[in-house]
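Archive record:
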Amino acid sequence: MSFPWIFALIVGAFILFLAIYGVSKLIGTQETLQSAKTSKEIGILLNPLETGFEEAKSSTLFFPVETRVYTDCNLGGDFGRQLIRISQKSFNKWVDTDLNVGFSNKYIFSKNPSEGEEFFIFVKPFDFPFKVSDLTYITSSRDVYCFVNAPDDIEEEIGNLQQENLLIENCSELKSNDVRNVTKVCFGQARESGCAVQVDYGNKMVETRDGKVHFETDALLYGAIFAEKNIYECQVRRLMQRVESLARLYSQKINMVGCGTNMQTDLIMLINSAKVVSDSSDLTLVNFVAEDIDSKNKAAGLCKLW
C-alpha cells in the first residue's frame, strides 16, 4: 500500500474519531441541559397545586423514560433553597448531572432518589399558626406505603387523596408477585415487627432507620414519613426561617392597623423561638407559642391578623 493511501486512512480515521467524539459530547451536553430543564419544569408544575388549597391535593407526574428525582435543600439566604436534580436513562445508561435547580419557595419531602416513570405528588398546607407554606410530598408509583392503626383523621385524608400507592390497613392484600417496594407505617408507642416507620402520634415522634425526628401538625408528619432524616431536618429549619419572617410582617401589621395589639408580645416570642430552632426536637416550644397566638387570633373577631 502506497504512502498516500496510508496517510489518507490515518487522517480519515482521525477525522472519524473527532466526529464521533464531538457527537457524543453534544449528546451528553443536550442530555444534561434536558435534565436541568426537567428539574425546572417540576418546580413550575407544582405551582398550581400550591395555590389556594386548604386541604391536601394529589396529582400524577409522568416521564417518558426511567427517571430518578433527587431532592436536597440548603439553609443559605433568607429562606434557604429547595434543590431538585433529575437523572434519566438514555441508551440503557443513567445520565447523571451535577446541575441542581433551586427554589426558595418550595418544600419537597421524598426518598432520595425516588425512581420510576410515574410519580404521585400531593400537597398539604402547613399552618404554624398562620399559613407558612405548602409542603410537597413526591413518591414513585413503585413505592407503596401501608398505614396501620392510623388516627381517623389520617385515614380519612389518605382515603380522600385516592392515591393508589397509599394504603390503609390492607398491606397483606398486596399480591405476592407485586414488585413494588412496600413500606409499613405503624402508629403506636410500641415498636411493631415489620414496621419500617414507627409513628408515636401522641408524643409527635417518627422513627425510621435513619433515627428519630419530631413533628408538629400532620403536614410535618407526612414529611417525616416520606423524607430522609437529613432532608426533613433541613426543611424544618427552612420553614422556621419563614415563620420568623412572617411573624415580623404580622408584628408590623399590628403597628399599622392597630389590631391584634394583645398578640404583639406573643409574636416577638414566636420570632425568637423560631430563630433558635436547631432541629425538629425544638419544635415543641415553638408550637406552644404558635397555639397560644392562634387562640388569641381566633378570638379577635373583626380584628384578626390573618
The first strand starts at residue 57 and ends at 74.
